[in-house]
């Protein structure tokens, strides 16, 4: 672990790793959301209906749920250097597929596959945790997440300009293809310039690949319970594509997917048993235990924070346009203020966690976002539009700072499982987005915001079960010696 001072103007050592990490994460978000600002041109070019355009939005986040879990396992096993390079290179392929799609089916398949790039976030969480000590970890992870997340806003501003620069009906295609080229370039830059750990440090790997390790019988069953919402969200996505909704899939196909998800869940149960069956015979020594309830609490909080952010970013331009009778351009500009907050608020949540304590800060931020969404649910056309924008920005501050505070905790739970823990927590963010957007399809805007506020209140009470990270976590080196890694913040 590097002892150099935390200085964002430094571009060497651990700070070089941090800057490269947020840059490649930024690129993944540019690629992941490269379609959003170009939807009108895409719809015109491919002769898509409004419902088909909404389907592309849904498909874009679908595979990110299992992808984050899978990539989390792989990064713990093979390391962030290789995994981020591979992810960026491989995901350029569906990016080019989408850029030159000629039919809705081709575009839909490409967008579905492109959701895999949303798993890049997990990889950076692991490498940042390797390079920064506990007292700086919240700040570093906040900078990584906040500055990287800004890629979606950057795409919204630059890609329409790029499409106009190319000109013609195919301008959007070349703009999207440019993001694929960017992904390829950064896959090489990343691989050539990073290492998994500082020189002399050990990269701890899980004992088994295939399922998350737990260290008590109670945690074994809690893990199985926490897996259920991820499968339920995928089943909900399939239903959204059924004849009952957008009619992209036949009912037979949806039924097959549902049966497949049930089979897959029980297969995963068997893998969890295979990896963890020894704990039912011989208890894990206290030194090597970790509390899975910490993971479960972070899952619930990320459902409410990042899940609501993804959902709100998707609907906010339309919300402003319909509520205040604004043009789409003006509504889009006002809504973009929500994304801009990421630059400061997510790192801010990490800084506050490092300074004042993980649990205390999360409690304050979760209460704040619950109040923020409650007020947003009260906004109507009688309000001044600038007051409504201010409310949205204030709410975004608590939401995104909460995301930063969540990932100030995640890397402090169990080092060798950081990728898997981050993957599961990140997947819960996508689960939240699927649930919230599905609810939005049935209710008015104000009810939508009240529902999010209610889940934030639930998250607040779940958070009371969390333990403040303290002391050390133990990992075993290849030679059998034990390394104690501090998880306490600076006082």
Whole-angstrom Rg:
22 Å
Largest sheet: 2 strands, antiparallel
CATH level 3 topology: Growth Hormone, Chain: A
Count of DSSP-assigned helices: 19
Structural class: mainly alpha
CATH-defined superfamily? MFS general substrate transporter like domains
Mean pLDDT: 90
What is the topology?
Blueprint: H1 13-32, H2 39-46, H3 50-62, H4 64-78, H5 80-99, H6 104-114, H7 120-131, H8 134-149, H9 151-166, H10 171-193, H11 217-240, H12 251-276, H13 292-324, H14 328-340, H15 342-356, H16 358-376, H17 385-406, H18 418-440, H19 445-463, E1 472-476, E2 482-486
Helix pairs in contact: 1-7, 1-8, 1-9, 1-10, 3-6, 4-5, 4-7, 4-18, 5-6, 5-7, 5-10, 7-8, 7-18, 8-15, 8-17, 9-10, 11-12, 11-13, 11-18, 13-14, 13-17, 13-18, 13-19, 14-17, 15-16, 15-17, 16-17, 16-19
Quick recap of the structure?
71% of the residues lie in helices and 2% in strands. It has 491 residues and is mostly helical. The two termini are 19 Å apart.
Structure characterization notes:
The chain is mainly alpha-helical and 491 residues long. The protein has helices spanning 13-32, 39-46, 50-62, 64-78, 80-99, 104-114, 120-131, 134-149, 151-166, 171-193, 217-240, 251-276, 292-324, 328-340, 342-356, 358-376, 385-406, 418-440, 445-463; strands spanning 472-476, 482-486. Helix content is 71%, strand content 2%. Strands 1-2 form a two-stranded antiparallel sheet. Helix 5 (80-99) runs antiparallel to helix 10 (171-193), helix 7 (120-131) packs antiparallel against helix 8 and helix 15 packs across helix 17 (385-406). The mean pLDDT is 90.
